[in-house]
Structures are given as C-alpha cells and as structure tokens.
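User: Show me a protein chain along with its predicted structure.
Assistant: Here is one chain, sequence first, then structure tokens.
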Amino acid sequence: MDSSPPRASLAFRFRALRHRNFRLFWTGQLVSVVGTWMQSVAQGWLMHRLTSSPLMLGLLGFCQFVPVTLFSLSAGVVVDRVDKRRLILITQTLALLQAATLASLVTAGVVRPWMVLALALAFGVINAFDLPARQSFLIELVGKEDLSNAIALNSAAFNTARVFGPAVAGVLLATIGEGGCFWVNAISYLAVLAGLAWMTPIDSAEQGDSSATLMDGVRYAWSLPPVRNLLLLLGVAAGLGFQYMVLLPVYARDILHTGAPAYGLMVTAFGLGSLLSAMWMTRQLSRWDLRRNLLVGLVSGGLGMGFFAWSRFLPLTLAMGFLAGFGLILYVASTNTMIQLTIEDRFRGRIMSLYTLMFIGTAPIGALLAGGIAQHAGAPVATTLCAVILLGSALWVSYRLRVIREREAAEATTQALPEQTG
C-alpha cells in the first residue's frame, strides 16, 4: 500500500517512456550524447593544447555554431517537408563520420588547428538540420498529451550525458588522450542509429508538408506574441549569456591551475545542475509555472555565473557551476515547452528551426565576443558580462510577468462584471 503512491508518481514523471518509439529514441540519444559531450570536452582541450589561445577557443565555438546561423531556417523547411526519421538517420550517420575523421587525425598525430576548425564547421552544418528535426520529431513519438514530458526527459537524457561524458573525458584525456574520446564518440552514434532503425513505422500522414515555405513559418511565429517574445529573449540570453563553455579550459589551466580531470569536473558540475533542473521539469506544470521558471532560471544562471567568474577555490567554482547549470536549463526547457505547446503541428519544423537559430545560431557572435574579451581583459571579465546579460534578461521577464498578471486580472474583472450586474 505504501509503495503504490511513489510508483504512481514515478510512472507519471516518466510517462513519455510508455511509448515504444520514444523509448528507443531516448535510449539511443542518451548513449550518443555521452559521446558527444566527451568530444566537446576533448575538442576544447585539444585546441587549447595546440594554441594556448582563448581567442582560438572562441573561434572554435564560432565555427561549430555559425552553420546553424546560416542554415537552420532553411533546415526548418526541409524538416517540415520530409520524413523526420530518415532525415535524423542521415544526420547521425554524417556525425559518426565526422567524429571518426577527427579521431583518425589525432591518432595519426597529424592534427592541426585548422583541421579542428574545419571539422567543427562540418559538425555545425550537420547540427543545423539535426537539431530542429529531433525537436519536432518528439510529437510524432508521443503525441501532444505527453509532449511536455518528452521534452523534459529529452533534456534529462542530454544532461545525464553532460554529467558522465565530461567526467569520463577528463579521465581519458589524462590516460589515452584526445583521440580516445573522439573514437568513443564515433562508436556511440551506433546506438541512436540502431534505435531509429528498430522503430515502428510512423503514419506517413503525420509527415511531410510539400507546401511548407520559410516565410510562412517566420510570419506565423511573428504573429504570435508569446512565441515572438520567447524567441527574441532566447536569442539575447543564449547567444550572449551562455558562452561559459568556450572559456572553461582557461579556468582549468590558467586560473585555477588544475589539469584535465578538474576541467571535466567543471563541465560535470554544470551538467549536474542541469540534470536536476530537467528532472524538476518532469512534473505537471501550468503555464504560470513555466513563466515563473523563466525568471527563476535566468536569475539562478546569472548569479551562478557571476560568482563562478571570480572564484579561485575549486569547490566553490563547482558549486556555482551547479547553480548556473540548474538555472540555464530551467530557462531553456521552459522556453522550449511553452513554444511547442503553443504552435500548430504543420509549422513545428520551421518554428523549431527558429528556436535552434536563437538558441544555438546566435552563439557564434557570443563565442567570438567572449573569446575576444577573455583574450584582452581576462576570462572572469568575459564571464561576468555573460552573467550581467542573464540578469538583465531576468529583469525584462519580471516586467513582462507583471504586465501579464495585471492584464489577466483586468480581464477577469471585466468578465465578472456582467455576472454581478445580472
């Protein structure tokens, strides 16, 4: 008797996993993204080892994200026109080949900075199509009823990988080097490819709209004030405020004077906070809960990054990384959920490509800005600027929530008047 309520609560929190196709997709992603995080950590470490330049770390981030800026809107049209499962099979296969190429260059001892940048650029092109496809694929796997839970569990898988991937990468970097991380990532893509291959075929009526156009999607997003505001805020907060990752090697090597394992711990600390936030999002949340999450997430992220910037004590650095990670994912996951619950299915690929553009496509500007400021004024100054942008975004959200609350109160009063007079 006593164990029944906890079981029911657990089943509710993981309700999207009752769908077989989503279980296959989610499990494959969990394995694959562990490898992706290992590659991300090792790639930054490799570039810093080859160049010892914060600016080159910023350029690496620029190359990895600028294709999303250039191609994500066009990718959204493709996503709305084709079978999403087949498109994801193609993008994941290309990502496997990219990882294997990088691993081969490092193993052969011929890798040069320009090669790392070129392969980061290739990965960015793949991501421009892969990210909106995966985001818009979720509703085909679980339906609208379990969509918010699927988004939360997807985020939980991503951040579980974010915890374990960097930690394992830190150990491998100290033992077998960057090449081992890249090879593990290449192999990990087989898991998501197998999951996609084993899925039950999805009704083709739910797939493909040959009449989809880019401008129709942009006009649709602009015509919905909640979606428009969420996307514009995401572009500022994510593009300029989320650029801590490119500078973590500087904190590990030059500020705290620690090695690769501590670098992995820093990334893991952000991941643990993000994982807790993602699990928090599996609860049943009202629209006002999601709105409050935006504010709480931006404040937590800004404060965490502000203290992280000036910490010289590793445990405090890790604690502030945890707080920042919690806030950033709470904000991003709530934004994603609110947008997906608002839009029509026929525009989903194009709207999620706009989401990808604002979330990741704005990062090249932020990465170059952070790297350039770190080069001339130091990484703490650059990270502090990111924190200020997040806190400024929180102030704007606070103002908007007050306006919405006052408007809804006024509407409720107006509706109540006829009943009272009647």
